[in-house]
Amino acid sequence: MNYPGWELSFAGGGLLIAMIAIVHVYVSHFAIGGGLFLVLTEMKGHRENSAAILDYVKKHTKFFLLLTMVFGAMTGVGIWFTISLLNPGATSTLIHNFVFAWAIEWVFFLGEIVSLLVYYYTFGRMEKNKHLLVGWIYFIFAWLSLFAINGIICFMLTPGAWLETGNFWDGFFNPSFWPALFYRTFLALMLAGLYGFVTSTRIKDHELRESMVRYCALWLLAPFFFFLASANWYINVLPEHVREVIFVRSPEMVRYIKTFALVSPVIFFGGLVMAIGLPARVKKPLAYLLLLIGLVYMGSFEFIREGGRKPFVIYGHTYSNNVSPLKVEQIRETGILSSAKWVKNKVITDENRLEAGRELFNLTCLPCHSVGGPINDIVPLTAMFKERALEFKIKRLDKSPYMPPFAGTEQEGKALAAYIFQELQGNK
Ligand code: HEC
């Protein structure tokens, strides 16, 4: 309650962060797997003494460099801007606990930038082994930055012993750290194959194109079952109550779980189809289609992982609407409006009731619900409720396991219900 709320309405409920974060993770995982792809494919070129393969690697490096360093880096910074505006309280908790993890991540990223630039600009001009070494350095830095970020992302879902100890290492090497690291590493390798399709299907020479597309298919297919096994391990380390929210009790999760389950075989068979001898005019669009399907795949997983935290943004520590579970009782006595530092209406009167209701909505509901937007739209969800039923529902909000308790007073609950019923539902 220490920060102003950002009234996004249509883009509420996480749409904005989802849009930025999903494209970012899609590119940043490629930045890892694709790094290994570069060195190993360069080694293949030397081994087979093929100037054509080396030429392909160089072209692929340019594509890789522009995509990961420009688009990847910009969206990465975009995530910071977005989360610090959407959820300043949780962002502050992350910074205070993991400042050195972030700092070292910046060092790794700087290492990535420098080594990748050197790798690209010295291609064919540096002695073979030295050039490969630069490529390996790039890959190691890229993977290490996954290592650092993975600890922090997993912390938000499974903070584990940190909740009691507050210890950095407990938070960093939390219960889902290892399975998630394997999961993301295998995924990164698969993405190297998926992105590789885009560049390899453009090779002019028929024979080389076929063999490189098959080579990319191997990158996609070989890690696939390890990837699924690590996904299974990941699910199994989640605490029982998190698993229950994801798989049993959360209606909005169903579509993401279904998408993930459906797309898994599609990606696999897509890889097989790419490996057989189809003409280039079929393979080229198919490469883009598979890339798009991969984005949906990754997006649905990220939605499941993020959704699994509900009603928290840091599990057990901060609710999605920035309230700490320890403070709920206290706020309930004094009221949300008088505890919040950035509201206009501190006291509810007959005149400002709806305006205050809107402020309450923005503070406590908008982090998860949009108004008329594609994610968790509050309008249809409350369409069946009369004003009194809404008042009752708000009092018992946490009976739905994916929602935090409403921390306001009786009078605030009524103002919120009135705002939803009269303004959002249009019952004047
Ligand atoms: C932590 C995220 C979160 C917050 C905060 C939140 N909700 Fe929800 N709410 C959800 C989810 C998820 C659903 C289920 C959506 C679905 O059925 O597809 C939901 C569903 C609902 C429903 C439908 C009935 C039900 O129980 O499923 C109502 C009514 C509702 N929310 C009201 C509110 C109000 C009012 C607030 C603010 C005081 C609020 N919510 C805050 C996540 C949240």
Description:
This protein has 428 residues and is mainly alpha-helical. The protein has 2 domains: 9-319; 326-424, Cytochrome Bc1 Complex, Chain D, domain 2. It contains 18 helices and 2 strands. It has helices at 15-47, 51-86, 88-121, 128-157, 162-165, 168-172, 177-200, 206-221, 224-237, 240-249, 253-275, 280-307, 328-334, 336-339, 353-364, 378-382, 387-395, 410-424; strands at 312-314, 318-319. It has a two-stranded antiparallel sheet with strand order 1-2. α8 (206-221) runs antiparallel to α11 (253-275). The longest helix has 36 residues, at 51-86. It is elongated. The two termini are 30 Å apart. The model has no long low-confidence stretch (mean pLDDT 95). The structure holds heme C. Heme C (HEC) is lined by residues 251-252, 310-311, 320-321, 364-365, 367-369, 376, 381-382, 393-394, 397, 400, 402-404, 406.
* Uncertain parts: none
Provide the succession of SSEs. HHHHHHHHHHHHEEHHHHHH
Form type: elongated
Distance between the termini: 30 Å
Question: What labels would you give this structure?
Answer:
428 residues; mainly alpha; Cytochrome Bc1 Complex, Chain D, domain 2; 2 domains; two-stranded antiparallel sheet; 1% strand; binds heme C
Element layout with pairings:
Blueprint: H1 15-47, H2 51-86, H3 88-121, H4 128-157, H5 162-165, H6 168-172, H7 177-200, H8 206-221, H9 224-237, H10 240-249, H11 253-275, H12 280-307, E1 312-314, E2 318-319, H13 328-334, H14 336-339, H15 353-364, H16 378-382, H17 387-395, H18 410-424
Antiparallel strand pairs: 1-2
The site of heme C (HEC) has 22 residues, from helix 16 and helix 17.
